[in-house]
Design brief:
There is one protein chain. The protein is an all-alpha fold. The protein has one domain. Helix 2 runs antiparallel to helix 7. The radius of gyration is 18 Å and the shape is flat. About 5% of the residues have low confidence.
């Protein structure tokens, strides 16, 4: 395909929309804060873990776009994702809170811990799935008009926004870790708990309300 001016303008919009989403505090951001104090490359590994879930989802939407955009299927998927993802996020929050004293001890976090955190937090994040079923699907529909190669470029550009943001955040936190007292670290973990549990409760409650509304 020819990379036209319209496509490059589309990529600019992808970068702006992606950064708007990634810069908003959420479960993945909280996981990055939690792991970055222990490993310089935590954000990089979390971004890789995020991509392990995100890339297959993007291709799934790309090839199943006709079925996914059907309103009745979309609503069912949104309810299921909200209920299951909400519960998983609340569970993640409770686990973070319960382990707050253990994680406040200084130790070197193994690489796989950050990688798994990226995979787990992404897969359990109802907001991530719903974003791709709404805003993300709209972007994929547009990318689809430019062809498969353009879609692959779009997917790479979107993920790179995540990669650079979380890597940068991780480095900044790691370099300032000497200022992290036990009290500060505990406060950060309580913030992470609030983000996980709060987002989880909101998604679960919204999905439950939608399900009840459709029945009534």
């Amino acid at each position: 395909m020819a990379f036209t001016a319209e496509f490059f303008l589309f990529l600019v919009s992808v970068v702006l929309i992606s950064l708007t989403g990634v810069m908003m505090p959420g479960p993945l951001f909280a996981a990055t804060i939690e792991k970055a104090a222990k490993r310089r490359t935590a954000g990089l590994l979390i971004a890789v873990g995020h991509g392990i879930v995100e890339f297959p989802l993007m291709f799934l939407i790309y090839y199943g776009i006709t079925q996914i955009v059907a309103s009745e299927i979309l609503q069912t998927v949104q309810i299921t994702v909200g209920l299951v993802g909400g519960l998983l996020m609340m569970f993640r929050g409770v686990q973070t809170f319960r382990n707050r004293n253990r994680t406040s001890k200084k130790y070197e976090s193994p690489r796989r811990e950050s990688l798994i955190a990226g995979i787990w937090t992404t897969a359990a994040n109802a907001g991530f799935i719903l974003w791709w079923l709404t805003i993300g699907t709209t972007l994929i529909i547009t990318a689809r008009t430019f062809g498969l190669l353009a879609f692959m470029v779009f997917a790479g550009v979107h993920w790179l926004c995540d990669f650079f943001w979380y890597t940068g955040i991780s480095l900044a936190i790691f370099k300032s870790r000497q200022f992290w007292t036990v009290r500060v670290h505990t406060a950060i973990l309580i913030f992470c708990f609030a983000v996980f549990f709060g987002f989880g409760a909101w998604f679960f409650g919204s999905a439950l309300w939608t399900a009840i509304s459709t029945i009534i």
